[in-house]
Amino acid sequence: MDSSAPDIRIVLVAPSHPGNIGAAARAMKNMALGSLWLVRPKQFPDPEATARASGAGDVLARARVVDSLGAALAGCGYIAATTSRERDQYFRVTDPRAAAPRILAAARHSPAAVVFGAERTGLTNEELETAHVLLRIPSSEAYPSLNLAMAVQLVAYELYRARATDAPAGEPAVSLATAAEMQQLYAHFAQVLDEIDFKDRTESGMHLMGRIRRLLQRAELDHNEANILRGILTAVQNRRRHAGDPPR
Q1: What are 89-106's pLDDT values in tens digits?
Q2: What CATH number corresponds to the domain at position 19?
Q3: How many domains does the chain divide into?
Q4: Is the pTM for the entire model greater than 0.70?
Q5: Sheet with 133-135: strands ordered across
Q6: 247 within some domain
Q7: 73 and 134 co-located in one domain
Q8: Which of 27, 133, 154, 244 has a CA 20 to 30 Å removed from the CA of 215?
């Protein structure tokens, strides 16, 4: 792998066709990306993957196979996830060309990731909630379906194209909070909301934590900011526990 290549993981979640894995590896090598992560692939390693890689066997050889998306995102800061479907307004959605400079800027500080879903079903809402931004590849409304490897090629091309511009716009001053740190923050948030009996006031009563997650993902918290919020949550918990004590 080129030592100057950006630290960007291409993450394929539950790919069902080994040929797509090989073609994705080839697309990555074309665009100087070498970090391929596979979450629960149906068939891998597989001769068809090797054949379709067509010279990118080194990318396949280094591919990491893991059991969960969380494991694939371990240590990552900025996360982009691909989607072909309309999502509700609380997700930030953009196209790969607009997102590429931000992904590259974040990758200078900690690993960044671009996540692709299974061929037939894409990513679930729960998987999408790990992302700071959703990527939609512009395509014909009459036939918007893209092959998995084609989608990887298009995103990889935009990342390669953006590298040629020396534009560090949007580069964060410090590393973003990792996916694991954000999950800890959300679990802490949910615990405190339960303790203070703060309920979702919407008609369905089911979306509060989802909206909080998306709000904070859009905010792109760094490590220190995530710790500040957790400190506030802990202070709320401590104040409630001492509410019956005499004033100090």
Answers
A1: 678 899 999 999 999 999
A2: 3.40.1280.10
A3: 2
A4: yes
A5: 64-66, 35-39, 8-13, 112-116, 79-82, 133-135, 93-94
A6: no
A7: yes
A8: 154
